[in-house]
Amino acid sequence: MKNLGKPVPKDLDKHKELAKAITGLSGSPDLDFQNTEIAFSHLSDAELKRSCRLFGLMNRHWLVGLGAKIGVPAIKLKLPFVESVVKNTIFHQFCGGTTLLETQETIDKLKEKNVLTILDYGAEGKESEEEYNITMNETIRAIQFAGKSDAVPVVSSKMTGLVSNALLEKLQSGEKLTSAERRDYRSLLKRIDAICYNASINNTAIFFDAEESWIQDSIDHVVTIMMRRYNKKKVVVYNTLQMYRTDRLQYLIDSFELAEKRGYLLGAKLVRGAYMEKERERAAEMGYPSPIHPNKTATDEAYDAGIQFCLSNYEKIALCNASHNEKSNWLMAQFIAEKKLPKSHPHLNFSQLYGMSDNITFNLAYAGYNVAKYVPYGPIAEVVPYLIRRAEENSSVTGDMSREFKLVQKEIKRRGI
Ligand SMILES: Cc1cc2nc3c(=O)[nH]c(=O)nc-3n(C[C@H](O)[C@H](O)[C@H](O)COP(=O)(O)OP(=O)(O)OC[C@H]3O[C@@H](n4cnc5c(N)ncnc54)[C@H](O)[C@@H]3O)c2cc1C
Asked: 178 C-alpha to center of ligand 1: Å?
C-alpha cells in the first residue's frame, strides 16, 4: 500500500484504536451544534411551530405505522384531500417541491444561509423501460438546472430508479444472464453514462445512493466504471459506502488503491446505512452471517475511521460526510481545524437531509464549512417511500422525544413563543 496517508488497519479491533486516535485530536472548531438560534434562523415563528407539531405527531410510533399502512394505498388510489394533507405536512418538512421549479424557493432560502442544495429526484423501485427513461431524463434535467446555479453543486440518483432490482440481484449472483437481460444491462450502462456525461459537461457532481447488500456489488461495479471514466481531473462521480456493513472500511481502502492504480480520483459519500433491519432479517431467514456490525458502537467506529481515512487522503478522495451524528460531524470539523485544511476545499463536504439536523447544517454553514442539504423533490406518490423512512426515523417506540423534536422545542422555548 503506498501513499495512503495515515495507514488504516484492516480489522475491527484496530478500527477502534483509530477511532480513539481521532478523539484525541486537540483542535477546537469554531462550532456549537447546540446553538438553536443559528440552527433555525431560516424559520419564522409560525414555521417553527408547524415543524414542532409535525415532529410531535411523528414521535408517536403507532401513528406512523398507521399512516404508512393507510396513507400509501390512499395516495395510490388518489383519494380526495390525501395528497393535499401529505403535501402540507410531511412533504413540506422533508421535500423541496413536486417539480424542479418549485424547489427554487427552497434552494434560495438555503443559499441565504450559506447552505448548498443536493437535488434528488425521488424515484425508486421502478419496473419498466419507460419509467427508467423518465427517471434518467428527470435526472439529466436536474443536472442541467444545477449547472446554471451556483447553489446546487450535486445531483443525487438512485440506481433502483434506472433498472430493475431483479436484474441488479441476478448480476450480483453471478448467474448467466439471458440475452434480454444482457440487453437491459447495456441499457442501464447507457443511461448511467448519459447521466455522468451530462454531469461532467455541466460542472456538476453526481452521487449514487447505496442500497441493500444483495444488489450493492452491481451498483459498485457500474459506479466504479463511471468513476474511472469521469473522475480523471476532478471528482464528478461519487459512490456511497454504508459503514454499518462490516466489509466497507476495507472496501473503502481497496477502492482508493484501485483509483490510485488506474489514475482517477475517488468520490466517496459515507453514510451509516438505512436498511439495517431488513439486512439482518434476510440474513437470519436465509442462514448467512449478517453483513451489519453487531452493535451501534462498532458502526460508529467504522464510520469515524472511514471519515479519518478520507480526510487523511483528501487531495485524492472527495468526501461527503453524510450524517446526522453530531460526533462524526464534529470529528471532521476538528480534523480540518487541527490540520489547518482549507474549509472550502471542494473535497471536504458535509451533508444532512432537508428537514433534519438543522443544528448541524446551519452551524457548519455559519462557521464557513462546505455543507449541503439533500433535497428530494418529485410528485407526492413518487416520494412516499422516502417520506415513510423519514417518519420512521423520527418516531419513538419508547415514547422518548426524538432528537429533532427536542431541538425544535428548545428553540421555541428560547424564542419564548
Ligand atoms: C445526505 C444523506 C444521504 C444519505 N444517503 C444514503 C444512501 O445512499 N444509502 C443509505 O443506506 N442511507 C443513506 N442515508 C441514511 C443514512 O444511512 C442513515 O440511515 C441516517 O443518516 C442515520 O445515520 P447517522 O449517521 O445520521 O447517525 P446516527 O443516528 O448516529 O446513526 C443511526 C444509524 O446507525 C446504525 N445503527 C443503529 N443501531 C445500530 C446497531 N444496533 N448496530 C449496528 N448499526 C446500528 C444504522 O445505520 C442507523 O441508521 C443518507 C443520509 C444522509 C444524511
From this structure: 36
From the CA of 209, give the closest atom in ligand 1: 8
User: pLDDT digit string (tens) for 333-375?
Assistant: 999 999 999 999 999 999 999 999 999 999 999 999 999 999 9
Considering the domain boundaries, does residue 87 fall inside one? no
Expressed in angstroms and rounded, the spacing between residue 276 Cα and the centre of ligand 1 is 9
More confident residue, 354 or 27: 354
- Cβ neighbours for 83, distance < 8 A, ≥ 6 positions apart: 75, 380
**Which amino acid is located at 216 in the chain?**
Q
Q: Residue 202 domain-assigned?
A: yes
C-alpha triplet 200, 201, 202: angle, nearest 5°: 95
Please tell me if the CB atom of residue 170 comes closer than 6 angstroms to any atom of ligand 1: no
Range of the domain at 236: 12-30+119-129+159-369
Indicate which atom in ligand 1 lies nearest the CA of residue 372.
1
Global pTM reads 0.92
Angle at 68 between CA 63 and CA 69, to 5 degrees: 100
Is the CB of 293 within 6 Å of ligand 1?
A: yes
